Amino acid sequence: MINLKNVTKCYTEEGPPALRNIHFRVQPGEFVSIVGQSGSGKTTLVKLLIAEERPTKGQIMLGEWDISNIHPKEIPDLRRQIGVIFQDFKLLPQKTVYENIAFALEACGASAKQVRAVVPQLLKIVNLEDKADRYPRQLSGGEQQRVVIARSLAHRPKLLVADEPTGNLDALNAKDITNLLLKINQFGTTVLLVTHNREIVNSIRRRVITLDQGLLVNDAEVGKYVI
Amino acid sequence: MTKFLRIIKFALQNLGRNLWLTVMTVIVLTVTLFSVNVLLSLNVIARAVAQSLENRIDVSVYVKPAANESERDSLRSYLVSLPQVSEVRAISPDDALAMFRERHKNDQQILKALDEVGGNPLGATYIVRAKSLDQYPAIITALDHPAYRDLIAEKNFEDYTALIARIQSAQDKAGQVGIALLAVFAILAMIIMVNAVRVAIFTHKEEIGIMKLVGASGMFIRGPYIVESALLSFFALVLASALLAAAVYFGTPYLSVFLGTDPGLLPFFGTNAAVIAVSEFASLLVLTGLASTYAVGRYMKV
What we know:
The structure holds two protein chains of two kinds. Chain A is of the alpha/beta class. Helices cover 33% and strands 25% of the residues of chain A. Chain A has seven helices and ten strands. In chain A, the strands form two sheets. In chain A, strands 6-7-8-3-9-10 form a six-stranded mixed sheet, sandwiched between helices. In chain A, helix 6 links the parallel strand 7 and strand 8. The radius of gyration of chain A is 17 Å and the shape is globular. The mean pLDDT of chain A is 90. Chain B is α+β, with helices and mostly antiparallel strands. A four-stranded antiparallel sheet of chain B has the order 2-3-1-4. The longest helix of chain B has 46 residues. At the A-B interface, helix 2 and helix 3 of A face helix 1 and helix 9 of B.
């Protein structure tokens, strides 16, 4: 599914690299937590996966697709194949919950019929059917994050990247979101959870990749948050 | 087709959901467009005033009383045949005498002197109008023709020479200043319009980034903003045109009294309204379209 081969990312020539020789592979259907403290390179890794940044060295393969040197015109295609959940939600403030989810489908060229069929299903999955007409500002943090999850699933991605999805949520909402991610993984979607939430990582008992100062320091099949 | 309809839908949603911003942008565009139209109107008024002054200029050719009818007719035919002449109005000796008497009907001394002279001491007069101001000197030169020189008692063009020169110079300067002002205003209008669109899009910069992260293509993101710009331009054009029409319609009577002549705005806009509207809309469309494409592009680099 994902294959990183000796990936290094430097933002400046003088400073230390954000990532150094990162090498790992993720199989389809896996649930992998990427953990590490602030500045360990977790967010850089997410940015590389969605082609927001390019690696300075190394290669990133998504299936058979080399996205290390992706052409700018191919980026929308790539992003339609990866669902991304952001810590700061990144919902469109001028669109309702329904429209935010529909937008991901409309951007892919889905027909109006498909939109009408899929969006209510997604709203049901994230339990927001009764809030379809609300704007993001009218929702709580947990609800907004659930909208983001629904949106990220709209185009049925094979890979879901969750960048600190519980970072802005209280413990109860964080647990809800984690359970939702596990449920999504059960249906076959590969999930990459980027977090520094120790309790969540330790509770789910899945593969954990630990980063520290840009280096991959641990990769455990059933891991724990060790730093 | 679905994509195009969605772009239109998003554009209309943006306009409606950011109503305040929409209103402000339309006002800025309208005021800018209106100011360009006002300048255009001033040029038309300046031309009308100059034309009115020009119409008051003519050359009076006083024929000697001794000239007989055949000589007078010959002179008249000669004047009419000159390529520079647009009109020759003849006043016969009898009409000239009647007009003289009428003009001095309250001046008994002059009337008495006229009676003492006896007969009609006045000759015919030809009032000659040129096709344009710069052709009067050519007409005056033509009046020096040996065949007619001796028939002419007096010609009063010299009195007008300075006035004609002043009008011509004022007309030329007004034309140059008008074009320069119009160019400056057009550039200012362009800057204001481009900036208004950029400000409107700046408020959407976060959204543009999000759309890109969700996988929307460049055209799918840009499209609604371009359509939005086109709609804003259209609203501004309609408003500016309505304002101008009202100003011209209600202002013309006052301007006519003030200037002493018809400012020529109604016929000018009556004839050129469609051309002006289409060219202004096309310019607005190109400007706002380019501005929105550029502004959106800046926020799409994610």
